[in-house]
Protein backbone atom coordinates (compact mmCIF):
# COMPACT_ATOMS: atom_id res chain seq x y z
CA UNK A 1 0.00 0.00 0.00
CA UNK A 2 1.31 3.44 -0.95
CA UNK A 3 0.62 6.02 1.72
CA UNK A 4 0.38 9.67 0.78
CA UNK A 5 2.55 10.88 3.64
CA UNK A 6 5.69 12.96 3.22
CA UNK A 7 8.11 12.30 6.08
CA UNK A 8 9.86 15.58 6.91
CA UNK A 9 13.36 15.05 8.30
CA UNK A 10 14.13 18.58 9.41
CA UNK A 11 17.53 18.88 11.03
CA UNK A 12 18.82 15.47 10.00
CA UNK A 13 22.51 15.05 9.20
CA UNK A 14 23.97 13.04 6.31
CA UNK A 15 25.38 10.49 8.77
CA UNK A 16 21.94 9.79 10.23
CA UNK A 17 19.92 10.07 7.03
CA UNK A 18 20.32 6.54 5.67
CA UNK A 19 19.40 4.75 8.89
CA UNK A 20 16.37 6.92 9.58
CA UNK A 21 15.12 6.74 5.99
CA UNK A 22 15.56 2.98 5.98
CA UNK A 23 13.38 2.74 9.08
CA UNK A 24 10.71 4.88 7.44
CA UNK A 25 10.68 2.86 4.24
CA UNK A 26 10.51 -0.43 6.15
CA UNK A 27 7.51 0.92 8.07
CA UNK A 28 5.75 1.84 4.83
CA UNK A 29 6.54 5.54 4.38
CA UNK A 30 8.11 6.04 0.97
CA UNK A 31 8.01 9.82 0.44
CA UNK A 32 10.89 11.53 2.23
CA UNK A 33 11.81 15.21 2.38
CA UNK A 34 15.01 16.74 3.73
CA UNK A 35 14.45 20.47 4.35
CA UNK A 36 17.25 22.54 2.89
CA UNK A 37 17.81 24.31 6.21
CA UNK A 38 19.08 21.01 7.63
CA UNK A 39 22.85 20.47 7.99
CA UNK A 40 24.42 19.59 4.61
CA UNK A 41 20.95 18.89 3.27
CA UNK A 42 21.99 18.31 -0.33
CA UNK A 43 24.49 15.69 0.83
CA UNK A 44 21.66 13.90 2.63
CA UNK A 45 19.41 14.13 -0.43
CA UNK A 46 22.17 12.70 -2.60
CA UNK A 47 22.86 9.80 -0.28
CA UNK A 48 19.18 8.98 0.08
CA UNK A 49 18.58 9.19 -3.66
CA UNK A 50 21.51 6.88 -4.36
CA UNK A 51 20.55 4.27 -1.78
CA UNK A 52 16.77 4.42 -1.78
CA UNK A 53 15.77 6.19 -4.98
CA UNK A 54 14.42 2.97 -6.47
CA UNK A 55 12.19 2.35 -3.44
CA UNK A 56 11.14 5.84 -2.33
CA UNK A 57 10.47 9.34 -3.60
CA UNK A 58 13.32 11.42 -2.20
CA UNK A 59 13.32 15.18 -2.25
CA UNK A 60 13.88 18.43 -0.44
CA UNK A 61 11.77 20.89 1.50
CA UNK A 62 12.02 24.59 2.27
CA UNK A 63 12.98 25.12 -1.37
CA UNK A 64 12.78 28.85 -2.02
CA UNK A 65 14.46 29.51 -5.38
CA UNK A 66 14.95 28.10 -8.86
CA UNK A 67 18.66 27.72 -8.07
CA UNK A 68 17.80 25.47 -5.15
CA UNK A 69 15.52 23.40 -7.38
CA UNK A 70 18.46 22.87 -9.73
CA UNK A 71 20.71 21.86 -6.84
CA UNK A 72 18.19 19.32 -5.57
CA UNK A 73 17.79 17.88 -9.06
CA UNK A 74 21.57 17.60 -9.42
CA UNK A 75 21.69 15.71 -6.12
CA UNK A 76 19.14 13.20 -7.41
CA UNK A 77 16.03 14.49 -5.66
CA UNK A 78 12.65 14.07 -7.34
CA UNK A 79 10.33 15.97 -4.98
CA UNK A 80 10.31 19.73 -4.33
CA UNK A 81 8.37 21.01 -1.31
CA UNK A 82 8.15 24.69 -0.40
CA UNK A 83 6.55 26.67 2.42
CA UNK A 84 5.17 29.24 -0.04
CA UNK A 85 3.56 29.69 -3.44
CA UNK A 86 6.35 30.87 -5.73
CA UNK A 87 5.49 30.44 -9.43
CA UNK A 88 9.18 30.68 -10.37
CA UNK A 89 10.01 27.70 -8.15
CA UNK A 90 7.03 25.72 -9.41
CA UNK A 91 7.91 26.34 -13.05
CA UNK A 92 11.57 25.46 -12.46
CA UNK A 93 10.50 22.27 -10.71
CA UNK A 94 8.31 21.16 -13.59
CA UNK A 95 10.95 22.15 -16.17
CA UNK A 96 13.37 19.85 -14.35
CA UNK A 97 10.85 17.00 -14.45
CA UNK A 98 10.35 16.94 -10.68
CA UNK A 99 7.24 16.77 -8.50
CA UNK A 100 6.06 20.18 -7.27
CA UNK A 101 4.37 20.57 -3.89
CA UNK A 102 4.28 24.26 -2.93
CA UNK A 103 2.87 25.64 0.28
CA UNK A 104 -0.45 27.45 0.09
CA UNK A 105 -2.92 28.71 2.67
CA UNK A 106 -5.57 30.77 0.90
CA UNK A 107 -7.75 30.07 -2.14
CA UNK A 108 -5.74 32.70 -4.04
CA UNK A 109 -2.46 30.93 -3.28
CA UNK A 110 -3.91 27.50 -4.02
CA UNK A 111 -5.19 28.54 -7.42
CA UNK A 112 -2.02 30.46 -8.27
CA UNK A 113 0.03 27.35 -7.48
CA UNK A 114 -2.15 25.18 -9.68
CA UNK A 115 -1.97 27.67 -12.56
CA UNK A 116 1.83 27.60 -12.31
CA UNK A 117 1.81 23.80 -12.64
CA UNK A 118 1.90 22.43 -9.10
CA UNK A 119 1.29 18.69 -8.79
CA UNK A 120 -0.09 18.96 -5.25
CA UNK A 121 -0.76 21.62 -2.66
CA UNK A 122 0.88 21.69 0.75
CA UNK A 123 -1.85 23.23 2.93
CA UNK A 124 0.35 25.07 5.42
CA UNK A 125 0.13 25.75 8.25
CA UNK A 126 -2.74 23.30 8.52
CA UNK A 127 -3.26 24.07 12.22
CA UNK A 128 -4.41 27.59 11.37
CA UNK A 129 -6.79 26.46 8.63
CA UNK A 130 -8.28 23.34 10.19
CA UNK A 131 -10.46 20.76 8.50
CA UNK A 132 -13.35 23.24 8.32
CA UNK A 133 -11.17 25.67 6.42
CA UNK A 134 -10.11 22.97 3.97
CA UNK A 135 -13.75 22.04 3.39
CA UNK A 136 -14.42 25.64 2.36
CA UNK A 137 -11.34 25.85 0.13
CA UNK A 138 -12.17 22.53 -1.52
CA UNK A 139 -15.38 24.06 -2.85
CA UNK A 140 -13.36 26.24 -5.25
CA UNK A 141 -10.51 23.89 -6.17
CA UNK A 142 -10.54 21.66 -9.25
CA UNK A 143 -12.00 18.32 -8.26
CA UNK A 144 -8.85 16.21 -8.63
CA UNK A 145 -6.49 18.61 -6.82
CA UNK A 146 -4.16 16.80 -4.45
CA UNK A 147 -4.02 18.49 -1.03
CA UNK A 148 -1.60 17.54 1.73
CA UNK A 149 -2.23 18.91 5.22
CA UNK A 150 1.07 19.94 6.83
CA UNK A 151 1.84 21.62 10.12
CA UNK A 152 -0.87 20.54 12.51
CA UNK A 153 -2.20 17.27 11.11
CA UNK A 154 -1.42 14.06 12.93
CA UNK A 155 -2.65 10.57 13.78
CA UNK A 156 -5.43 11.86 16.04
CA UNK A 157 -6.84 14.06 13.28
CA UNK A 158 -6.24 12.03 10.10
CA UNK A 159 -9.91 11.01 9.87
CA UNK A 160 -11.15 14.59 10.21
CA UNK A 161 -8.76 15.80 7.55
CA UNK A 162 -9.72 13.01 5.16
CA UNK A 163 -13.38 13.88 5.69
CA UNK A 164 -12.60 17.50 4.86
CA UNK A 165 -10.97 16.54 1.58
CA UNK A 166 -7.28 16.05 2.37
CA UNK A 167 -5.48 13.49 0.23
CA UNK A 168 -2.48 13.05 2.50
CA UNK A 169 -0.13 14.66 4.98
CA UNK A 170 3.32 15.95 5.71
CA UNK A 171 4.59 14.76 9.09
CA UNK A 172 7.63 16.27 10.78
CA UNK A 173 8.36 16.21 14.51
CA UNK A 174 5.80 13.48 15.14
CA UNK A 175 8.20 11.28 13.19
CA UNK A 176 11.64 12.80 13.62
CA UNK A 177 13.54 15.36 15.67
CA UNK A 178 17.32 15.88 15.41
CA UNK A 179 19.16 13.17 17.28
CA UNK A 180 16.38 10.61 17.22
CA UNK A 181 17.54 7.07 16.55
CA UNK A 182 16.34 4.94 13.67
CA UNK A 183 14.67 2.65 16.21
CA UNK A 184 12.71 5.56 17.71
CA UNK A 185 11.65 6.75 14.27
CA UNK A 186 10.61 3.24 13.28
CA UNK A 187 8.28 2.95 16.27
CA UNK A 188 6.67 6.32 15.53
CA UNK A 189 6.36 5.49 11.85
CA UNK A 190 4.54 2.23 12.57
CA UNK A 191 1.99 4.08 14.74
CA UNK A 192 1.45 6.74 12.09
CA UNK A 193 1.06 4.15 9.34
CA UNK A 194 -1.48 2.26 11.45
CA UNK A 195 -3.47 5.45 12.13
CA UNK A 196 -3.34 6.44 8.46
CA UNK A 197 -4.51 3.04 7.28
CA UNK A 198 -7.39 3.06 9.76
CA UNK A 199 -8.48 6.56 8.80
CA UNK A 200 -8.16 5.94 5.06
CA UNK A 201 -10.47 2.91 5.02
Structure description:
Pathway: Carbohydrate acid metabolism. Keywords: Carbohydrate metabolism, Lyase. With 201 residues, the chain is of the alpha/beta class. Helices cover 47% and strands 16% of the residues. A 9-stranded parallel sheet has the order 5-4-3-2-1-9-8-7-6. Helix 1 links the parallel strand 1 and strand 2. The chain is globular and about 45 Å long. The termini are close together. 44% of the residues are buried. The model has no long low-confidence stretch (mean pLDDT 97).
Overall geometry: globular
Physical arrangement of strands within the biggest beta sheet? 5-4-3-2-1-9-8-7-6
Strand content: 15-25%
- Main sheet? 9 strands, parallel
Spans with pLDDT under 50 lasting ≥5 residues?
none
Q: SSE string, helix = H, strand = E?
A: EHEHEHEHEEHEHEHEH
Q: Number of domains in the coordinates?
A: 1
Which structural class do you get from the secondary structure elements?
alpha/beta
**Total beta-strand segments:** 9
User: How many helix segments?
Assistant: 8
CATH architecture: Alpha-Beta Barrel
Tell me the helix content.
Answer: 40-55%
Compute the gyration radius: what is it?
16 Å
Average pLDDT metric = 97
CATH C-level class: Alpha Beta
Q: Could you tell me how far the N terminus lies from the C terminus, measured between alpha carbons in angstroms?
A: 12 Å
Amino acid sequence: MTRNIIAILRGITPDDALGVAGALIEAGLTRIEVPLNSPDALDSVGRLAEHYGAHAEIGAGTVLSAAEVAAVAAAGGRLIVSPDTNPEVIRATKAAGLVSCPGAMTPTECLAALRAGADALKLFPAALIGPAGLTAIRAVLPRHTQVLAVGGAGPDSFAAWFAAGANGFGIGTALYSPGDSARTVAARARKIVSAYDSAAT
